[in-house]
Structures are given as structure tokens and as C-alpha cells.
């Protein structure tokens, strides 16, 4: 049995988590996976995140995308950047199936009741390269796989580790995959919001756990030593029920990369590191009877605790993506081992970083 970070005493930051410590702590958010495994060569899949269970095209949500390193293929970016909304589920899959996922997401959207006259759909699709473990050139994710991930999306606990888009992922040369976490943001006694994060991790660097140099202790080669460049990617999905504009969401998305860096990522040359943030606080109707949309928005002066929340949640989501993954054998007999958790715990004890949050309180 694999355990999440908090189950073994690794507590990131000082802010409280939501009840599930998951992106679905943001009310209305749904997550679905489709895991695609076939024989000894296929280890891939699809993960879908939905801001709400209605018709996203007709009831869009404010959104923004930030890029730390753009060595990737993130479909739909320019329209989100231009108008600040998303109108489809957020899909994550492997690099060479982005086109498949776009086509499937478009077909899913066109098929929804109320969309009979729709002639343009901006599908949002991110990717990680799982070609070490999976026959990525075979493009084994199908349109029905993508639609299955969307239709399986549910609120509640989120499956982590080797599922969905994380099935063939690896990070710091260990098996990784999907991870999630959340934080509660109290602004005053009557005002409390949630920030939830879901990651699909597939990148290089030198693993750091709450300040403990776990990668170095485990014998990971460090930078400056002869080694092959580690590419990959990390897709970070951020949800909040706080009423932000797309500008505020862009600022929130940028801060997620600080959480990524805290885990030991160096945002390498060959890594596509993207963060997409959305708010569920209000919806933007596709056909509005008035040209004015006047939601109550948080002041920029109130954003600092949200920055802390997204950094902490991203960092912990990465740990969960590693800790919940299992050793996986893929194409050409390649084996990517799971993190040796007994050793990780001993290293964390050595550097006195277990139950850190309790001691800080």
C-alpha cells in the first residue's frame, strides 16, 4: 500500500488543507481518468478536469494559463490568453495524442444539448511525454478514451499515482503520475476560500522533500555531473472558488511554479511546464442578454495568501504524485522504480522534516 505525503508525516507548509486534500475540495470540480494499458508496451492514458458538471461552452469560467518553460504542446492557449475563459474540459494526455484529445473534446462539446449551432470550440489540452515506458509513437489513446475520461469525472476523492495521464510518467528518475492537494484560505471570520491543485508530473531535477535532499541521499546524479538532459513536462491545474478575474488567475498560476521548484525541479530545457488556473465563483454565459458582466472580484491586495496556498498545494501534489506511484515495467523491458519510501522516511527523519507543520504551529 502506498501512502500520501501526510500519511507518513510529510506536511507541507502551514495552511490547512480541505477535507479531501484534493482539487475536488473546490465545490463543483470533477476529475476523471482513463488508463490505457496494453501488453508490455502501452502505458498511457487521459486525465480530465471539469470546473462544473454543466455545459461548459454555454457557461464558461474565467481562466488563465502561465508558462514556465514552453517546450510543450498546450492546445487552446492563445484563446485563453486572449479572452480569459475556458469552454471545454481540461484534458491531459501524452504528447503525440494531443490532436486526438482536441478532436474528442470538440466532438464531446458539439454533442451537448444546447450546442447545436456551435461552429467554433477552443479545446484545452496539455501533455506529458510518456515515451520511456509507453509506445508513444503508436498513438494508442483514442477519441473514445478521451470521452470516457470526461464522462467518468466525479467529485470526491481523486485517484493518484499511475492512473490516467500519469500512467507512464516519471519524475526525478522515479515513477510518478497524478497528484493532488488543496489549501483553505481564510480572509476573515466570515470569508473562507479553497485553492485546489492537480498535477501530472514527468520532469527532471534533484528531489527535495521539505528541505531534505532526498535525491542526493538516494544517489541521484546532480547537475554539473555528466548526464543526459532530462525533459518531460509538468501540467498543473489550479481550481479556486475565490472570485478572481483572468488577470488574478494568471498571477495565481505563475506562483505554482515556485511550488514546483521547491520539489527540486530545475525547469529544464526540454520540459514543458504549464499551469492553468480557473475560478468557479461565477460563470460567463455564452449568450448574455446584457453586454455588462459585473461579478464581485477580490481586491489585488487580498491575493498574497492565495499565492502561499497555491505554492504549498503544488508542492504537496507533486509529492503525492510520487509517493502514490508504483514500480512500472514498460516497453523494451524498461523499469521505472517507485520511490523507496522506507528510505525516504529515514532521510526525512535525519533532516528533521517529518511533522514539520505541527512543530511550526
Describe what this molecule looks like in 3D.
The protein is an alpha+beta fold and 361 residues long. It has one domain (5-287, 300-350): L-amino peptidase D-ALA esterase/amidase (4-Layer Sandwich), CATH 3.60.70. It is built from eight helices and 15 strands. Helix 2 crosses helix 3 (143-151) and helix 5 packs across helix 6 (304-323). The longest helix is centred in the last third of the chain and has 20 residues, at 304-323. The chain starts with 29 loop residues before the first strand and ends with a helix.
Portion in beta strands: 25-35%
Which descriptor suits the 3D outline?
globular
Which regions contain 5 or more consecutive residues with pLDDT less than 50? none
Q: Main beta sheet, described?
A: 7 strands, mixed
Task: Average the pLDDT over all residues and give the rounded result.
Answer: 94
Kindly provide the name of the CATH class. Answer: Alpha Beta
DSSP, total strands: 15
The CATH superfamily is known as L-amino peptidase D-ALA esterase/amidase
Query: Rg to the nearest angstrom?
Result: 19 Å
Secondary structure tally, helices: 8
Structural class: alpha+beta
CATH architecture designation: 4-Layer Sandwich
> What is the N-to-C succession of helices and strands?
EEEHEEHEHEEEEHEHEEHEEHH
Distance between the termini: 30 Å
CATH topology: L-amino peptidase D-ALA esterase/amidase
Amino acid at each position: 500500500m502506498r501512502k500520501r505525503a501526510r500519511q507518513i508525516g510529510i506536511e507541507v507548509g502551514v495552511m490547512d488543507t480541505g477535507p479531501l486534500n484534493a482539487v475536488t475540495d473546490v465545490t463543483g470540480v470533477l476529475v476523471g481518468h482513463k488508463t490505457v494499458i496494453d501488453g508490455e508496451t502501452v502505458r498511457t492514458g487521459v486525465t480530465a478536469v471539469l470546473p462544473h458538471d454543466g455545459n461548459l461552452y454555454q457557461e464558461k469560467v474565467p481562466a488563465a494559463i502561465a508558462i514556465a518553460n514552453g517546450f510543450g504542446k498546450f492546445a487552446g492557449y492563445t484563446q485563453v490568453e486572449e479572452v480569459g475563459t475556458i469552454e471545454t474540459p481540461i484534458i491531459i494526455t501524452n504528447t503525440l495524442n494531443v490532436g486526438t484529445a482536441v478532436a474528442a473534446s470538440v466532438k464531446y462539446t458539439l454533442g451537448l444539448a444546447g450546442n447545436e449551432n456551435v461552429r467554433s470550440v477552443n479545446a484545452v489540452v496539455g501533455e506529458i511525454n510518456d515515451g520511456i515506458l509507453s509506445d508513444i509513437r503508436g498513438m494508442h489513446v483514442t477519441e473514445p478514451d478521451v470521452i470516457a475520461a470526461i464522462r467518468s469525472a466525479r467529485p470526491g476523492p481523486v485517484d493518484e499515482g499511475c492512473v490516467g495521464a500519469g500512467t507512464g510518467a516519471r519524475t526525478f528518475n522515479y515513477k510518478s503520475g497524478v497528484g493532488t492537494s488543496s489549501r483553505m484560505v481564510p480572509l476573515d471570520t466570515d470569508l473562507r476560500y479553497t485553492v485546489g491543485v492537480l498535477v501530472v508530473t514527468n520532469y527532471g531535477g534533484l528531489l527535495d522533500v521539505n528541505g531534505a535532499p532526498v535525491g542526493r541521499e538516494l544517489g541521484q546524479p546532480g547537475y554539473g555531473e555528466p548526464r543526459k538532459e532530462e525533459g518531460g513536462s509538468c501540467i498543473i491545474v489550479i481550481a479556486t472558488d475565490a472570485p478572481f478575474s483572468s488577470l488574478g488567475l494568471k498571477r495565481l498560476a505563475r506562483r505554482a511554479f515556485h511550488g514546483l521548484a521547491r520539489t527540486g525541479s530545475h525547469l529544464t530545457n526540454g520540459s514543458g511546464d504549464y499551469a492553468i488556473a480557473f475560478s468557479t465563483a461565477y460563470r460567463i454565459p455564452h449568450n448574455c442578454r446584457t453586454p455588462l458582466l459585473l461579478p464581485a472580484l477580490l481586491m489585488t491586495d487580498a491575493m498574497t495568501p492565495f499565492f502561499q496556498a497555491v505554492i504549498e498545494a503544488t508542492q504537496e501534489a507533486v509529492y503525492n504524485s510520487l509517493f502514490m506511484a508504483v514500480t512500472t515495467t514498460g516497453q523494451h523491458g524498461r523499469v521505472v522504480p517507485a520511490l523507496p519510501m522506507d528510505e525516504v522516511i529515514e532521510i526525512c527523519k535525519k533532516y528533521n522534516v517529518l511533522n514539520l507543520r505541527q512543530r511550526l504551529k
